[in-house]
Amino acid sequence: MKVVIFDMDGTVIDSGEAIYKTVNEVRDELNLPPLEKEFIIKAINEPGRNLPLEFYGIDTPSRSLKEGFEEKFKKFYDECATTYDGVKELLQKCRDAHYKVVLASNAPHDTLEKILKKNEIYELFDEVIGASKEIPQKPDPAMLHLAVSKTKANKAIFVGDSLKDELAAKNANMPYVQVCWGFGEESKTATYNAKNVSEAWEIILNF
């Protein structure tokens, strides 16, 4: 049994505009000038960066700042986030080939069902795994191990767009596809690179 595990933001869902607008609306409330979208997207996808400090000049954000960010992000996510072209068809191809299909996202677990249903792709996943108190975020490999365990697969591949995703796959000893249609750029250290959905499907089909 083969399982194909997908990251969400930057791989399945284009949430770049939502993240960009959220960060800069918070900055505006703090009387700070806006940041470039490219800088924001790169920062959130690199492990080890202190995002509150880089985005807001605050080493430890207050509870009210966190809650304000989450409220704004939910609003902009609903307004702006959409599925990348061809990805819904890619998920369907995986199902038609009788592969198990799992989502593994650093977003909070309890937010994922609503997002996926809004984009009409929830039913294409056999399992949906997000971050929680029990499940740490990537690059920890816990989500990937859980995906394999839940589906009882004997072959697994992870499809993502960031260094966090690549490191999670490496930590799980799992082949990794770096996609270049979303937030990601080609990686010299990834197992595979996919410039488009067609290339991703060929890799998934043949690994």
UniProtKB/TrEMBL annotation:
Protein name stated in the entry: phosphoglycolate phosphatase
Gene Ontology cellular component annotations, sorted alphabetically: cytosol
Reaction it catalyzes: 2-phosphoglycolate + H2O = glycolate + phosphate
Entry's Gene Ontology BP terms: DNA repair
A GO MF label: phosphoglycolate phosphatase activity
Family designation: Belongs to the HAD-like hydrolase superfamily. CbbY/CbbZ/Gph/YieH family.
Pfam families, per the entry: HAD_2
InterPro entries on file: HAD-like_hydrolase_sf, HAD-like_sf, HAD-SF_hydro_IA, HAD_2, HAD_sf, PGP-like_dom2
Entry-linked PANTHER family: PHOSPHOGLYCOLATE PHOSPHATASE
Species assigned in the record: Campylobacter concisus
Pathway, per record: Organic acid metabolism; glycolate biosynthesis; glycolate from 2-phosphoglycolate: step 1/1
Enzyme Commission number, as recorded: 3.1.3.18
Enzyme's top EC category: hydrolase
